[in-house]
């Protein structure tokens, strides 16, 4: 089939998210200017550069108690910082709790039963037991076409690696099975990997 997004797809559910899979999940922790913690997952997320290390994620949609945005973006606008926590399979249920739309002063860490740890370089909480956490300094927020669509870019200025995830000098994803987002309400985990040598490797 072929369809023009502006005309609709004619299917029971929008297939767009299912076309871009699997997607890593940025479990973004922030706090507002009054110190209220927030934690929410975003799957339009990726790294954008090595030196200095940089990341991006996209925020779409709005909340009634925020000004045409979501808690995460509102908090980043207020503080300029955030932390991206890597989600492992064992944290699936806790992550799912944080997908719920709570009032802006509700602490999702507490709702999900997660231990909190402070970041070292920014004033922001992080998921204490996450396989990795990236402390981020926002560099730009870019509005996109459409209502309440934004891309947040940041430099990673501090990185936490859980000790058991570092094996033979490498961050080994097989030690924790990363959770990935598919389309609709579907998820997957990384449970096997393989290595390819590039043709120009010497």
Automatic annotation (TrEMBL):
Alphabetized GO MF terms = FMN binding; oxidoreductase activity, acting on the CH-NH group of donors, NAD or NADP as acceptor
Q: Which SUPFAM superfamilies match?
A: FMN-binding split barrel
Q: Which InterPro entries match?
A: Flavin_Rdtase-like_dom, Split_barrel_FMN-bd
Flavin reductase like domain segment(s): 18-173
Q: Which domain of life is it from?
A: Bacteria
What's the protein here called? Flavin reductase family protein
Source species of the chain: Shimia litoralis
- Please name the taxonomic classification of the source: Bacteria, Pseudomonadati, Pseudomonadota, Alphaproteobacteria, Rhodobacterales
């Amino acid at each position: 089939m072929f369809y023009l997004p502006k005309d609709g797809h004619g299917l029971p559910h929008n297939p767009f998210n299912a076309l871009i899979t699997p997607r890593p999940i940025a479990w973004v922790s922030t706090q507002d200017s009054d110190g209220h913690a927030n934690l929410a997952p975003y799957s339009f997320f990726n790294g954008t550069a090595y030196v200095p290390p940089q990341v991006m994620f996209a925020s779409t949609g709005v909340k009634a108690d925020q000004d045409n945005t979501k808690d995460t973006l509102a908090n980043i606008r207020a503080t300029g910082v955030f932390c991206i926590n890597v989600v492992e399979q064992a944290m699936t249920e806790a992550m799912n709790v944080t997908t719920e739309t709570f009032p802006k002063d509700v602490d999702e860490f507490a709702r999900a039963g997660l231990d909190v740890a402070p970041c070292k370089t920014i004033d922001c909480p992080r998921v204490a037991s996450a396989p990795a956490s990236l402390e981020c300094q926002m560099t730009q927020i870019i509005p996109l076409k459409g209502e309440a669509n934004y891309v947040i870019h940041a430099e990673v200025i501090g990185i936490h690696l859980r000790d058991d995830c570092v094996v033979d000098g490498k961050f080994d994803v097989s030690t924790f099975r990363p959770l990935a987002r598919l389309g609709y309400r579907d998820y997957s985990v990384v449970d096997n990997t393989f290595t390819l040598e590039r043709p120009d490797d010497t």
